[in-house]
């Protein structure tokens, strides 16, 4: 009895929605959309294969990015044939001109610039001989290792590149001794055939 009375009072309360209008009838989708959905339904088996193949390629690429730098991955890489080093030397006239320019800078007490000049003018010469060895993204050390140099030439340029790194990037000033060492290495390498 109490339940019936409570229900009756509830139904008479203001603010309650008692009438529900039916949902409006949806317009049918356009014919082109129906044709597209039908075509996709027909192509579903092929699209499923394409989807899973894409997932497999993505997973393989992700695994390769993670694994390629691990030590055992080197076993699976093809080794590049080492380029035969040629005994490239700068032209004797160009070497004498470079040494004169470097000496002028050194006489003015600009030892860092003089060493820098030895390295970068040599890199230009190497680039003329083997452009692929000198790319903008490479460091001077990388260029020295890729250049067509004999071991004596490579040792000379390593010494010069180290001096440039210490002074130019490391902020340690170069003195006369360091310049003389770099100049001597360059001269011994560049003018070795002239001396013999």
Index terms:
8 helices; about 200 residues; about 0% strand; mainly alpha
Give an overview of the whole structure.
This protein is mostly helical. It has a domain at 92-195. It contains eight helices and no strands. The protein has helices spanning 2-12, 31-67, 92-107, 111-129, 140-146, 151-169, 176-190, 192-195. Helix 4 (111-129) packs across helix 6 (151-169). The longest helix has 37 residues, at 31-67. The radius of gyration is 39 Å and the shape is elongated. The mean pLDDT is 80.
**What separation lies between the terminal Cα atoms?**
127 Å
**Computed Rg:** 39 Å
Shape: elongated
Main beta-sheet strand count, sense and barrel state: none
Low-confidence region ranges:
none
What percent of the residues sit in helical stretches (DSSP H or I)?
55-70%
How many β-strand runs? Answer: 0
Strand fraction: under 5%
What is the H/E order? HHHHHHHH
Class based on secondary structure composition and strand pairing: mainly alpha
* Average pLDDT reading: 80
Question: What count of helical segments does DSSP give?
Answer: 8
Describe the SSE topology.
Layout: H1 2-12, H2 31-67, H3 92-107, H4 111-129, H5 140-146, H6 151-169, H7 176-190, H8 192-195
Helix pairs in contact: 3-4, 3-7, 4-6, 4-7, 5-6, 6-7
Structure summarized in a few sentences:
This protein is mostly helical. The protein contains eight helices and no strands.
